[in-house]
Amino acid sequence: MKKVLIVTGGSRGIGAATARLAAESGYAVCISYLRDSAAASTVVDGIRRAGGEAVAFAADVSVEAEVVGLFEQVDAALGPVTALVNNAGILERHMRVEQMDAGRLTRVFATNVIGSFLCAREAVRRMSASHGGAGGAIVNLSSVASRLGSPDEYVDYAASKGAIDSFTLGLAKEVATDGIRVNAVRPGVIYTDIHASGGEPGRVDRVKAAVPMQRGGTAEEVARAVLWLLSDDAAYTTGALLDVAGGR
Ligand code: NDP
């Protein structure tokens, strides 16, 4: 059976690394992105040059109609989805709770939580054995912030990732008999652009002293854990929250 993977937010960072590794493992890959079409094209072109199959579509994961449209485009371009990585996520500038307004909280939860729900819903509708699907696997990108809290003024982000952990545990049980496995990866500090968008480009180097392994991680190191959870090697693993955090 053809393996078809959607990686949301696959134009950069952990999502791009996951898309590249998945293509090397034989997946036909769709990456979605928010606005950086040039970065998305670079990822797709690289996969194609290496002999893989890849497409990219713009879709804001927090907008229901765009998520529905994304899955319909993938149905037409690649065939039925068999795997989903809910990777798209945002980290807003660090800020104490007293300064946070509802607009910020809505943006963070809309992308990190509602986006993952909407994409998982579309995936389950297609993968579920009870709807005639062939089963599949979903991996959600959480964060160690979900269990550490976030001592450096990202309490909204930590709470959104706590919701992802609960979502993973609940959905894994709900769809276990539909042939769908649902797991989460919880990265520690990883060298990607997300820290610059959070207003702190040097954050990984600042935080790494608190990591037992004394270093930040790479996007590829996270992607390898994601690929393992998607693979048949993890056939009896569902509802797992896997830390990839250098022991933190
Ligand atoms: P990046 O900031 O490097 O990339 C984010 C990606 O998400 C981009 O492709 C971006 O698209 C896309 N995106 C953002 N908002 C939306 C949206 N509303 N709809 C669709 N796509 C969107 O992030 P990382 O690679 O660092 O993070 C990936 C995941 O890993 C996130 O969920 C993050 O919370 C989690 N994580 C990261 C850690 C880290 O230290 N880096 C640590 C723990 C967890 P575009 O390029 O078009 O803007």
TrEMBL record:
It comes from Parahaliea aestuarii. This is SDR family oxidoreductase. Belongs to the short-chain dehydrogenases/reductases (SDR) family. Residues 3-193 form the Ketoreductase domain. GO terms for molecular function: oxidoreductase activity, acting on CH-OH group of donors. The keyword Amino-acid biosynthesis does not apply. It holds the Pfam family adh_short_C2. Keywords: Oxidoreductase. Gene3D superfamilies: NAD(P)-binding Rossmann-like Domain (3.40.50.720). The lineage of its organism: Bacteria, Pseudomonadati, Pseudomonadota, Gammaproteobacteria, Cellvibrionales. Signal peptide: none annotated.
